[in-house]
Amino acid sequence: MSTLLDTALAAPSRLGAVGVTVGYGGDPVVSDLTFDVPDGKVTTIIGPNGCGKSTLLRTMARLLKPSSGHVRLDGEPIGAMATKAVSQRMALLPQSPLSPEGLLVRDLVGRGRHPHQRWFAQWSPADEQAVGSAMRMTDTLHLADRAIEQLSGGQRQRAWIAMTLAQDTDLVLLDEPTTYLDLAHQVEVLDLVTRLNRERGRTIALVLHDLHLAARYRDVIVVMKDGAIVAQGDPAAIFTPELLLDVFGLRADVLADPRTGLPIVVPLSADRD
Predict the structure, then answer these.
(1) Which of 12, 125, 141, 163 could cross-link 112 (Cys pair, CB 3.0–4.6 Å)?
(2) Sheet containing 203-207: which strands, arranged edge to edge?
(3) Can you give the pTM of this predicted structure?
């Protein structure tokens, strides 16, 4: 398969991985990978299970330490930076985040302000403003006094995104933010992510599984396979029957949406063409 790499994205950005190899004690999950997150864009990462999508995101957020290579943030190796300095510039929402039982939405969102607080001044008008703005942006103000476990899936994800937004970073990483949500709530969350980028100027990198949603909610698509990036650019060029078969093992036709022109993936069943 010929690799599609968008050379326009080759210039260094604020956040990037340089020759990164990382795993969990056995064979590496990601090998010698170099990747720059495009500034000011929504970058959506797709690929089959186990290909290294979440590992890459966790490594870029400094939750995993690469065995070789490094992650660069604002020109500095992220491993040499103080945790608080990283948290003031970049936020990560992991898969299926957990919160203590009984934690209220307002308290969860307030935790996003921890990187900006000092021990002698735990709460400030700036914190109050950031939390209120985040909750308005995510339509969670009316949920402020509800416990997280009392919320629906879509409400819960909006609350977690509000916490991430309250952290007030220019870089936001989202690891499968639509997991376990029905389609309506997936669209609700991804509409919010798009607004964070378009209205607040956030640089966003997120991992998604659904190919149709990935084609719609992105500026750039990144395709991973076996710990490497094999394609990067516009979905109209990347989503081909050949790539889907090679990367996902999926026999499918690719049609153009008559309204948007974006690719629609139509799987082919095993017993018919």
Answers:
(1) 163
(2) 90-93, 171-175, 203-207, 42-46, 220-225, 228-233
(3) 0.87
CA distances from 147 to 14, 62, 99, 152, 196 (A): 36, 30, 10, 11, 25
Alpha helices in the chain (DSSP H): 53-60, 83-87, 105-110, 125-137, 153-166, 183-200, 211-216, 235-238, 241-248
Nearest to 35 by CA among 253, 179, 222, 203: 222
How many Cβ atoms sit within 10 Å of the Cβ of residue 66?
A: 21
Of the candidates 62, 68, 111, which has an alpha carbon nearest to the alpha carbon of residue 90? 62
Q: Do the Cβ atoms of 107 and 146 come closer than 8 Å?
A: no
User: What are the structure tokens assigned to 60, written together?
Assistant: 């870029």
For the record, the structure tokens of 136 come out as 């308005």
Tell me the C-alpha distance between 37 and 60, whole Å: 10
The DSSP output letter for 268 is P
Write the CB contacts of 115 (distance below 8 Å, at least 6 apart in sequence).
84, 87, 88, 167
Look at residues 170, 195, 161 and name the one whose alpha carbon lies nearest to residue 93: 161
The tens place of each residue's pLDDT in the chain, 273 residues long, gives 444 444 444 457 899 999 999 988 778 999 999 999 999 999 999 999 999 999 999 999 999 999 999 999 999 999 999 988 999 899 999 887 888 889 999 999 999 888 777 666 677 788 889 899 989 988 899 999 999 999 988 888 889 989 998 998 999 999 998 887 888 888 988 998 998 899 889 999 999 999 999 999 999 999 999 999 999 999 989 999 999 999 999 999 999 999 988 999 999 976 655
